[in-house]
Design goal:
The chain contains twelve helices and 13 strands. By secondary structure, the protein is α+β, with helices and mostly antiparallel strands. The chain binds zinc ion.
Length: 324
Amino acid sequence: MLKPILTPRDIAERYNRCMPDEIRQYLNSRGIAATIIDRQLLGWNGANITIPVFGDTFWQVVGFRYATLPQKLGDSPEMQFADTDKPMLYGHETLARKPHRIVICEEEFDRLLLESHGVPAVALGAGTTAVLPQWKDAFDGVEDIFICCGRRTASAEAAKKVQHVLPNARIAKLPAEVGEGGRIFDYFMRLLHTDHDFEVLLASGTAADESTSQPPQIGLLKPADKTQARRAARLRKRVRLHDVVYIFTNLQASAGRLVSHCPLHDDSSRSFSVHPETDVYSCSVCGAAGDVVMFLMNKESMTFGQALEALERFEITGTIYGAF
Ligand SMILES: [Zn+2]
């Protein structure tokens, strides 16, 4: 009797079905969601975690990468490269659906974690040493490209190589608190940063040919009352505008800003920008612009004094309204 021929996709599905519960739990502890484990057909071949590499669609499995479990569960798994022939980005199927933005990270597990957070991502992974110029075409039509790399010298070099191929891509460096050799895993799972923090990190990234786009100039409201002026000056330093705006609308990194639908008018596109460097907002449609105090005055129809009170409350409780 003829044996049915197994396609690479069949093999990936079989490995996925064979994944023991403890491996699933291990992947969860690495920040990889159950839905991503199954969509990406992560599996177990009896010795290693199997990671299929897809082509343009999930139907096309073009290779496998294998992860060896570390001795200590806190350590990262070691990757082996077994793609068909030439180095490939891991996450080609994400690129093929042309997301409006994408994050390029270093390692396969970083990418799976980001996708678990709803962030479209690809990893250089086992291809880190070879960044191929022809990868450029795959990024055509992607509006915002971010490179999020670790703090090692090799990571910074890899990021530069990618930026050489994709000059529009912005390099966002993980903060020093992740430690030497720290990665996206440490950022989210050890330091417990939020999705919003990550957007702010991405917005801090810089492109190769950074043209200095000036954030809008705004006149700060100066109350005659000296005490109020002092309170306002202190709050402008202590409370970040994007943290307050985030209560009302989801902000996403785009170029060097955070953007969203404008919370101050009925907005069908993403006209509203927060400039994290200067803590100023602006809307290209309704023309609103200001600082954190003005934002509350505009958004919540507060007086200057009420906005200060709300910000003092926010500093302590994280909410605008309610009791101290
Ligand atoms: Zn607006």
